[in-house]
Every structure is written in C-alpha cells, then in structure tokens.
Amino acid sequence: MLLKDLRTAVLDANLELVKRGLVLYTFGNASGIDRAEGLMVIKPSGVDYDGLRPGQMVVTDLDGNVVEGTLKPSSDLETHTLLYREFPSIGAVVHTHSEFATSFAQAGMEIPALGTTHADTFYGPVPCTAPLSDEAIGGRYVHETGLAIVRRFAATDERAAIDPLAVPACLVAGHAPFCWGRDAHEAAHNAVVLEYCAKLAYNTLTLKPDADGVSQALLDRHYFRKHGPGKTYGQG
Question: Is there a catalytic annotation at residue 157?
C-alpha cells in the first residue's frame, strides 16, 4: 500500500471511532502498518478529530522514530509499535476509552463470551491484563502497556497462547481497550463490535451475575461461520 493510501485509511479509522461514539474529544487513536516498508502511520497526539487531514498523520518506523510529519505522534506510540513487532499477523491497531469496554478494564475483568454476538468476532473471552507494577508505571509506561498485552496472549503453564487474530482485542487493567485487525478498517470495526459486546455482557451480568458462557459448540459454530477457510457467512 502506498503511504498516502495508508494515511487515508488510518484517518478513516480514526474518524470511524468518533462516528460510532467510541471516542470523546481526543481520547483515542488508530494506526496502520506497511509491513513491506517497515513503516507505521498513526494519529498525531492531542489533535482534534474535526480538523484532521491525511497529511497530518505521522509516519514512524517500528522503533518509533518519526520518518514523515511535522506533528508529534500519539502518546500511545510505543504500545502500537510493540504490538506490531510482537504480533506479525496484524496490520492496524486501535485504542479507545469506550464506555463499557473501559468499565470492564477498570474492574480488571475479562469480557466473557456469553452469546453468539460475541462469538461472531471473538473466539473466546476478551482478556484483561494483569495490573502494571509501580515500577512499570514509573518507567517506560507506554511500552510496558504493550508488554502487558503481549504477556496476556502468551502461553503459560495454565493456558494455551491466544491467537491475536482470533481474539483481536485486549483490555488493559485500570486503563482501556486496545483492538487490532488485518487493516485499519477491520481494526476500527473490531473496536466497535467490542464495545457492543461489552455492553451486552454488562447488561447480562447485571440481570444474572452467574450467567454461563456460551457453549464450545455454539462458539465454534458462530466463529467459524465467519472466519477461516470454511466460512459460510456473506457472499463469498
């Protein structure tokens, strides 16, 4: 993809977050990567969405060095670059402080897979990271935020690794959600769906705090009808 096209795609993703009510003022950002060039395009820090133009998007390398642009990149830059380095299958990252997903993050709770709406996009619960230590917060805080996400997706003795494209989102404890996708459009789409699923989960747990999660059979049926080589949803 040409950088000018990537700038436009990233701008469109940022504006989609505003259009769908996931962002207040400048509370959020989206980025996209050109893997062939090793360059990333990201929203500038603290710039109001109303006046954003493609040329204002900031181009950096994967170490966060600005390559093109006169504005400062998003303050979440180091989280984005780390996720691109550690999750090579993703092509875009979105960060919001959307109401319901952020509520789960502030509670330090994962978003359980309670029904088929969730299962259509997320193959299992949307995980929440462990809280950051005081040392991590006082050090390279934004970098440590990315590390917390990566650690949550890694295999441990208790659980298998999570495929970042099968569960394209993570809640950062005490903070807010990060989402991603194969491109900027998909990442923004996943952020919108995440917020809706978080709202449904909140409502369900309010009505029935001990609600069971969706069965594995139903999770499989709904996830794989939209994902993978055997998917049947849509026009093919």
Answer: no
Predicted model pTM: 0.95
Residues 35, 16 contacting (CB under 8 angstroms): no
Evaluate whether 81 touches 104 at the Cβ level (below 8 Å): no
12, 34, 49, 120: which one is catalytic? 120
Instruction: Give percent helix, percent strand, percent coil of the chain, each to the nearest 5.
Output: 40, 15, 45
Domain membership flag for residue 236 = no
Using the predicted structure, report yes or no on whether residue 159 has a pLDDT greater than 90.
no
pLDDT tens for each residue of 185-235: 999 999 999 999 999 999 999 999 999 999 999 999 999 999 989 899 988
Instruction: Identify whether the C-beta of residue 47 lies closer than 8 Å to the C-beta of residue 71.
Output: yes
Domain of residue 204, residue span: 3-226
Residue 109 to residues 105, 118, 203, Cα–Cα distance (Å): 6, 16, 15
- In this predicted model, what pLDDT tens digit does every residue of 63-75 receive, in sequence order? 999 999 999 999 9
Decide if 152 is inside a domain.
yes
71-109 as b/e: b if 16+ CB within 10 A: eebbebbbbbbbbbebbeebbbbbbbbbebbbbbbeeeb
> In 3D, which of 226, 229, 49, 38 has the Cα closest to residue 122?
226
Q: Is 33 part of any domain?
A: yes
Task: List the CATH number of the domain containing 110.
Answer: 3.40.225.10
Active site residue 120: yes
Q: Count other C-beta atoms under 10 Å from residue 135's C-beta.
A: 8
Given a cut of 80, is residue 1 above it in pLDDT? Answer: no
